[in-house]
Amino acid sequence: MTQTPSRDWQKDMETTKKIRSGGNGKYAPAGWLDALEYWLQEAKERGEREQQLKEDLTKMYDLMKDALGCMVMLEGKDGDHVQRIVNVFRALYPDTPAPKEGSS
């Protein structure tokens, strides 16, 4: 599955504002520029939310790694709680192959 390249919403917003301020907006269908500006603003906000989620998930991941380390020290690597956390990590990162036993 190929992914379409992402658009630069800031560049698109600047172009839209230039069209509106230069009087060229009169050639656009009614409401077209308003709709375009709305969706460009929406793209900006979604990008900001996505970035915040990535930062929060990275913090949670680091905390979970620390917790897992403590649990391994207390229970050993084969403990039930340790295995549940390991399974969560595997579900989050399914494309990352697990290290082979005996390799570092």
Label this structure with key terms.
single chain, 104 residues, mainly alpha, 3 helices, 67% helix, rod-shaped
Provide structural commentary.
- This protein is an all-alpha fold.
- The protein has one domain.
- Helices cover 67% and strands 0% of the residues.
- The protein has helices at residues 9-21, 32-75, 80-92.
- Helix 1 packs antiparallel against helix 2 and helix 2 (32-75) runs antiparallel to helix 3 (80-92).
- The longest helix is centred in the middle third of the chain and has 44 residues, at 32-75.
- It is rod-shaped and about 70 Å long.
Short overview:
The protein is 67% helix and 0% strand.
Which helices and strands occur, and which strands form pairs?
Blueprint: H1 9-21, H2 32-75, H3 80-92
Helix pairs in contact: 1-2, 2-3
Structural class per helix/strand content? mainly alpha
Percent strand equals under 5%
Please tell me how large the radius of gyration is.
Answer: 24 Å
Distance between the termini: 33 Å
Spans of at least 5 consecutive residues whose pLDDT stays below 50 are none
Number of strands: 0
Domain unit count: 1
The helix/strand series, from N terminus to C terminus, equals HHH
**Amount of helix:** 55-70%
H/I helix tally: 3
The main β sheet shows up as: none
